[in-house]
Request: fold
Amino acid sequence: MLTSHARPLQAGRNSTVKGDRGVQVAFYLVKGAHQFQHQQGEIAMTNGISEQEYNRDFRKEFEKTMAEIAASQKEGRAEMKEIRAAQKKTDEQLEKTDRYLKETARQLGAYQKTFNTQWGRLTEALVEGRLVDVLKGWGIEVEFTRPGLEQHYVREDGARVNKEFDILAVNGSEMVVVEVKTTMKHRDVTHFLSAMRDIEKFYPDWAYKRVYGAIAYIKCDAAAEVQAEKKGLFVIRAVGEGAIITNNRDFKPRSFTGPATEVTHLRAVPGL
Reply:
């Protein structure tokens, strides 16, 4: 005989639930199922359903629900495993990227150090006397050389134009402005020519004297060297601890200031 107190599924009131979330969920489901079974048992008695039949159907439904929960848990664990694997892969990639960036920074630092060293050595060599010798070979008697300082002028629109010239070689009536490059390229020549066209604005005291331009380099593009000479610039190449002017012997340097733009009195001095 079916009674309202039949409890084929037991969940003790004082049971201690430990473990993962799934165990806790199962506990409360069993507890709820027990309460539901108790209520449905009373309804079953009024409908003439046997205790055995009722318990069988209820267990099937309950086992189906628990199976679905177990499957959901399994799927969740699989997804978490995938997430952890993806996170690990991301962390490894970030670590790899970090190592690459550090190595790139180290190499750039080394290149910058090499560049500064080469540029500095060439500039120092020219200032210390090599420039005096090579220009003397073209009839320019240099009285002193010095590193160029940053100069500026103000345009009509009020904008300030700044330019730092690397080396100045000076005598009483002439000045040679030298741009120093580790590798001379076409754009370097173009930029230097642009600055030299405004040389009177940078050095207004030299507006009525002769100012020549020169580019000194360690390496260069062949086209840049040809361009520089064609535009009237002295071309100075570093050779070992010294330097030479590579212009053709019939080269005519351009004066960017003074009474004439073409200089005819300067020629390469034989034997120098």
Q: What stands out?
A: The helical segments are 21-47, 51-136, 186-197, 199-202, 222-230. The chain has a mean pLDDT of 75. The chain is about 50% helix and 20% strand. Strands lie at 144-147, 150-154, 160-164, 167-170, 174-184, 210-220, 234-239, 242-245.
